[in-house]
Amino acid sequence: MVRCFLIHTVCPVSALGPGDSRVLYSRVFGPDEGVVSEQNREVSPERRRVLQREKVSVVVRQVHSSVSLSREASGRPPGETVPGEEALALQEADSGVVRLRAGDPFHEEMSALWLGVQSLGFTLVCEPHENLLLAEGTLRTLTRHCLEHLHMLGQGSEVLLRSNRVDALLSRLLPHGQLLFLNHRFAQSLEKEVVAYMAK
Amino acid sequence: MYDSLFLYSSFLKAELKSCSCDSSPGVFRVRTVYLPRCRNRQEKRRNARLSLKMYSHGSESLIKQARDIHESELQKFFSRLVKLLQGKELGHETVDSLQRLLLILSATKYTKTLPPELQRRLASLLSSSAEQLQVLSSAVLRETLPLSGQEVNYNQENVVQLNSHAASLLLSQAQSRADLSSLCAQLLRGLEGRQSEGSAHSLTHTLPILNSILTHSPESLTEDHVTLLSKKLVDWLRYASITQGGGASSGGFFTGQRSRQPVPTAELDGTVSGDFFTVLCVGQGFTDDQWMNVYSFSMLRHWLLTNHSVSNGNTTADTDDRSEVDGSVVSMVSATSSSSRLLPPRERLREKAFQYCQRLIEQSDRKAQKRIDTDLQKACLVEAVCILDRVCEEDTSLVFRTFPCIKALFGRLSSDLSFARVLLPIAQFYLHHGETAAVDCESVWNLVFGRFPAELFNDLFLAHELLRFLRLNLESLQARVPQYTRSFPNLLKFLAWDSPSAVDDFVDLLPSLVTTGTAVELLHTLLDLPCLSATLVLQLRSACQPISDTGGRALLSLDAFRSTSYRGLFLFLLRGEAGSGDTIDRLSTLHKLLAEAADWPRVVQCSQTVPVLLHIFFNTVVTVANDKLLAHLILVMLERSSLLLNVPKYIKEIHRVFSCHLLRLCKLHPSLVVDQSHELLEFAGATANVYSKEDIYTHVVWVLGEYLSVSCDSRCSVRLITSCFETLEAVLFEITSSAPTPGAVCPAPRVITTLMSALAKLASRSHDLIPRVSLFFSKLRTVTRGGSVPWCNNEEDLVAIVTRGEELWSLLKAPGVAQSVLTPPTHIASPQWHQDTNVAMPLRLRALTSLTHPQ
Fold it and tell me: Residue B335 burial by CB count (10 A; 0-12/13-18/19+): exposed, middle or buried?
């Protein structure tokens, strides 16, 4: 299963410290870890929410540093594309995977797959035994749809103001965190629905 | 007041239209009627620049506004929203406001409470007919807490009727395992009915939710649940329709009707399917059960992995079967096992999973017409092999039926490295079951430990998966695959290429690579890791740049890499296995050739991980090594301390690690110092080392002074002590009698005091030497009386050195006392003595000082 899908910055943000990122969208799937773990049974729901937020920011920090180090090592600056060039942006995107050790921040070990498109990172946190080939493909598809339907290559703020589009996207392509084996026909049929939703 | 009005108006009232893609950053502020629209050219230019950065000031200021919103404005906004939701027509404005509410709630990590009325209205929106409203209300409620006394009812009968968005809210707000259990029970009850009874739409999200519950809390499912779900999965996996669903889909997943003339589904290469439906079958449209087939297969592996951990409820042995009559064709794959219907549900599912995977493997050999399908075939192969591995774990009798297929698949794919990530699960299968089936695994390991790291070191995902594979199977690999430890030069390529990602895995793996046979070579390899990193860069560049291409800045190292005269050196670095000679003689040549690589980011990143790994190496090696090996390692440290690639800070860091572990090794095995006294003295006698390797030099001198003693090793003769004394004395004399050569720095005060202490220690063990060291101390006092010396330009340091000299001098005046202080018997130096304030060393020293220095 996928534990969460995140969209966040991977560039310096003036209001934040170096290495910190702004989380623009986060969706954690399934029940909260704290509900089922022995040790956190007594934690109040408010506190659990704060803890969940902190977990997300730990992941994002790790991904941000991984993106920066990977870009530094490859010596390739992130490409610059404009709206309309989503396919190209996706092609030029950096990608990688970060191992999140057990307890840091999830109870069990996780793998965080990321795609770095210019100043934004798209991250999928998967259980490590998950089919990463499938997860990679799903992350690319999700990213493409986000870029296209939220016009993310432009400078608008639609990811903040139309986050329901991402929710709708996830409910089809990654329902409740389940990676799906979709051949092109199944994918097309879901994409039609996605387009219909976006047109509303 | 103006500020807050502005905020309210701009943030909460602005039309969503105004922030669409064509608008600019800060749009909330700029496009509202309250603020002028005009912007100067400079601002426009800045915006144009920002547009390339994707994350605009607009987004940043939106988040800030959402966070800073005043409570009073928020309340006003809430009541406006309630009013909106009371209306009959929920239009654009409602959607817009809900989205804004969502942003306000999610912009802060603290939970905000909504008015009960609003919360109720939102909850009723969950079942709205407009999906957008379902999505938004679910998202907003996820960000809030359920009202107290109004907990979501997990027992309600209509749980199965919930749409996917409402269900996800229910899942995320579960407060206990009990909630999850009842949700689970409800969902499964929904599955129990025939598909036609419950709306098929709800079934598609049922499986992912069940899978999610299973992940977090497997105990929520009972044995009965497992039986039920196993049966349903068999139905969907194996008996989905083999004809296409109704043509062009007109909206939802399940709205298509069956066409009058049933058209069979097709394989990915376009031929008509001759067997049961799988995720690799295509058609113009799909039937409900075909969709369920996709969902079932997607969760199958996880289900097989976890369904054994469910709680033990009542088991109802039930072999009732109705699926076989569903009109499916008899499978080619399963034709031999039609008796499987007599099996209990779990075993039956295993059998069907086995057949499904075999069919997928066969289907993956077909030439897909779309790229996305080619990728899917690979992912399916990974999944199929993993599932087969799993079912064989559960039922070893399947191993013999599975191996021919796995072997054939390996034969088909092994020469094509683009299938590396599929080959990895195959390797896992061989490792798990190769012994049972008595299969030769040699070629599998040659691939995993040979070609993969050598040729695919730059595939980050493969690296991640391969290193994880090694971590998970460490024990069996060490026991059964001798190639594993031998292949460390190859495996380390992953680390050399992408150190930040791989270091975490190597922290876990490295101890398993340290054996008495590999330790020395492994140490050299770790020290040369930055060279390997540079060489891998050169290898890739050399492969993608034609030799004739001299354009751009030519790299000297690239020329060297291509030159035949240095080929041996580079090939040694790139070797795949341990034990093929060494290049220590020509290492300095290699370092010169790679000098320009010292500031390549990849090389720098790599060099930063080496100290961490060295610590792990030494911590492990003391647990496996014998004295002979440890002695050898000390030699390697002394030798390599001057043979390192000159990466900024790298040498210094390595010296620090060496110093730390030299000390620890000698502490653990003090006789090592006597064993290696010749080499240690040679090192300590070279004055140049005082300046270039201060850290390690200090520690060598310290261990000589500390452990060259009969109490540590009976072989320690007076002659040895004297020769050591003379060596150190010569160095100390040299560095304190003359100014350093122009351009060189003064010797570190720590080196001087360590040398002095070492001399005093040695003298306390061989009293003939006391006059010589006392003479030095008296000279030191005389020389420094003037206040300044050429070898120390810091007054405080000089005072410290002189004081230290005087203390030691005084101590040596009473040789018996000096010996007990400078070479205390082990029982005195043991920790509890220091804890006892009555006998602690400082107290003894103070007492002795007052005796020897009568006031």
Answer: exposed
Q: Cα separations (Å) of A183 from B287, B355, B384, B456, B779? A: 15, 20, 16, 28, 88
pLDDT, one tens digit per residue, over A152-198 is 888 778 888 899 999 999 999 999 999 999 999 999 999 999 999 99
Please name the residue that has the structure tokens 């996800």.
Answer: B168
> Contact B460/A95, CB-based, under 8 Å?
yes
List the end-to-end C-alpha distance of chain B, in Å, as a whole number: 79
- Answer whether B25 touches A (CB < 8 Å): yes
Q: Which residue of A has its CA nearest to B135?
A: A164
Nearest CA distance, B575 vs chain A (angstrom): 23
pLDDT of residue B726: 95
Confidence of residue A42 (pLDDT cuts 50, 70, 90): confident
Give me the half-sphere count of Cα atoms (radius 13 Å) on the Cβ side of residue B85: 23
How far, in Å, CA of B253 to CA of B291, rounded? Answer: 8
| Cβ–Cβ under 8 Å, residues A160 and A24 | yes
**Interface touch B504/A101, C-beta < 8 Å:** yes
Q: Which two tokens stand for residue B687?
A: 């004055």
Question: What residues of chain A, 59 to 118, have a C-beta less than 8 Å from chain B?
Answer: 65-66, 69-70, 72-73, 75, 80, 82-83, 95-99, 101, 111, 117-118
How many CA atoms within 13 Å lie on the side-chain side of B92? 7
Q: Residue A126: is its pLDDT beyond 80?
A: yes
Neighbours of B372 (CB within 10 A): 16
The CA distance from B370 to B380, in Å, is 15
As beta bridge partners, residue A96 has: A114
- Rounded CA gap, A74 and B600, in Å? 10
Q: Which residue did the predictor score with more confidence, B737 or B2? A: B737
Q: Could you tell me the pLDDT band of residue B835, with boundaries at 50, 70 and 90? A: low
- Kindly give, in sequence order, each residue whose CB lies less than 8 Å from that of residue B221, ignoring residues fewer than 6 positions away: B184, B210, B213, B214, B229, B307, B310, B311
Decide: B769 and B793 in contact? Cβ < 8 Å: no
Task: Encode pLDDT of B818-830 as tens digits.
Answer: 888 888 776 665 6
Rg of chain A in Å (alpha carbons): 17
**Would you call B25 and A66 a contact, using CB atoms and an 8 Å cutoff?**
no
Report the largest interatomic distance among the alpha carbons of chain B, rounded to a whole angstrom.
Answer: 117
pLDDT at site A110: 96
pLDDT in tens, B132-160: 999 999 999 999 887 654 445 555 555 55
Report the pLDDT value the prediction gives residue B24, as an integer from 0 to 100: 34
- Other Cβ atoms less than 10 A from the Cβ of B804: the count is 19
In degrees, rounded to 5, the angle at the alpha carbon of residue A131 between the alpha carbons of residues B473 and A63 is 90
Put simply, the chain B residues between 212 and 231 with a CB less than 8 A from any chain A CB are 212-213, 215-217
Across B410-446, b (16+ Cβ under 10 Å) vs e yields beebbeebebbbbbbbbbbbbbbbbeebebebeebbe
- Which runs of E-coded beta strand occur in B8-54? none
Overall size of chain B counted in residues: 855
Contact status of B297 with chain A (Cβ, < 8 Å): yes
With tokens 């210094």, the residue in question is: B652
Assign A200 to helix, strand or coil: coil
- Consecutive H or E run containing A120: strand A120-126
pLDDT at B788 over 70: yes
How many angstroms separate the CA atoms of B475 and B619, rounded? 20
**What is the Cα B48 distance to its own chain's centre?**
38
What interface predicted TM-score (ipTM) does this complex get?
0.96
Q: How do beta strands A2-9 and A23-28 pair?
A: antiparallel
CB A183 within 8 A of CB B376: yes
Where would I find the H helices in B307-419? 345-363, 371-394, 397-413
Amino acid at residue number B407: K
